[in-house]
Amino acid sequence: MKLKFWGVRGSLATPQNNDYFQENIKKLLEKAVEYNLDNNNKIPKFIESLPQYMSSIIGGNTTCLEVRNEDNIIILDAGTGIRNLGNYLLKEFSSKSIHCHILLTHTHWDHICGLPFFIPVCVAGNSVDFYGVHPNLEQRLQYQQDFRFFPLSFEQMLAKKTFHQLKEGTSFEIGNLKITTKLMDHPGKSTAYRFESNGKIIVFATDAEYFDLNHNSLLQKFEFFNNADVLIFDAQYPFDEIIKKQNWGHSSAFIGIDIAVESNVKKIIFTHHDPNSTEKDLFELFENAKKYLNINYSNSNLILEIAKEGLVIDV
Ligand SMILES: [Zn+2]
Ligand SMILES: [Zn+2]
């Protein structure tokens, strides 16, 4: 399986802000002076020496991930990140028709608002299969594109659209990929997906709150995440904010680490980043998560990663 992140922000798309950009440029130039950057050959090493928040970008698009398995294209959520994925697919397939599967965790705006900008679904001859546990999925997407809210109706998007109503806890297959669902605590509930193929496991569990951190209360979650090679986890808030934001439907990196260690997960990837966190804040939160792992689970082999747009992982 190949996993690619196209959108990693939670709640609202978060474009870069000019003040932040200019401040970063200033700091970058100060670092360059300190480094004695006096010729182009030194640039690659200079970039390597920079802190991550200066040399890379987390990104501002809301949730969208792509899983490729055999020839199947599986898209997880249709946040604003799906627009770039659609443009990429159009180039890749050129004049050939596109068939993809869109699995929705739930229908909060940040997980569906990119769909009207996903061009492959507008093209006759393409086909898109939609999957979700929530009832009336088709009506929900039609409603989003009611003319009061958007100029193009869902029916005017001409790809062949097929809807698959999933039942929580059951499994289904796309090619040799086995997919199992589980409902998570979130306002209106969200769906976590477990993907298994050739002995490898990816679990996608965004928009999820863990109210009771008692071991016994989490047993079902441990079971669902068990032995995952990759667990993609909602870490929207720092741990101290989680206490103030009960019932907001999200979690934090520290809780993710506790659950991942207990579930024997190999790699946890933090996602659904808060729109109020700058790129620098997010890298700091990530460093704190690494410290938390080292202090509390010094013998653990768990690998931590922060979701960024463009991150590709072979599983
Ligand atoms: Zn969300
Ligand atoms: Zn949500």
List the helices and strands and how they pair.
Elements: E1 2-7, H1 18-35, H2 43-49, H3 52-55, E2 64-69, E3 72-76, H4 81-93, E4 99-103, H5 109-112, E5 127-132, H6 137-144, E6 160-165, E7 171-174, E8 177-184, E9 190-197, E10 200-205, H7 219-225, E11 230-234, H8 239-244, H9 253-262, E12 267-271, H10 279-296, E13 303-306, E14 312-314
Parallel strand pairs: 3-4, 4-5, 5-6, 10-11, 11-12, 12-13
Antiparallel strand pairs: 1-2, 1-14, 2-3, 7-8, 8-9, 9-10
Bound molecules: zinc ion (ZN) (2 copies).
One zinc ion binds at residues 106, 108, 186, 190, 207, 249.
Describe it.
This protein is of the alpha/beta class. The chain has two domains: 2-14 and 57-314, 4-Layer Sandwich (Metallo-beta-lactamase, Chain A); 18-55. Helices cover 30% and strands 24% of the residues. The protein contains ten helices and 14 strands. It has helices at 18-35, 43-49, 52-55, 81-93, 109-112, 137-144, 219-225, 239-244, 253-262, 279-296, and strands at residues 2-7, 64-69, 72-76, 99-103, 127-132, 160-165, 171-174, 177-184, 190-197, 200-205, 230-234, 267-271, 303-306, 312-314. Strand 12, helix 10 and strand 13 form a beta-alpha-beta unit. The radius of gyration is 20 Å and the shape is globular. Bound molecules: zinc ion (2 copies). One zinc ion (ZN) binds at residues 10-11, 108, 110-111, 207, 272.
List keywords for this structure.
315 residues; alpha/beta; Metallo-beta-lactamase, Chain A; 2 domains; 7-stranded mixed sheet; 10 helices; 30% helix; globular; binds zinc ion
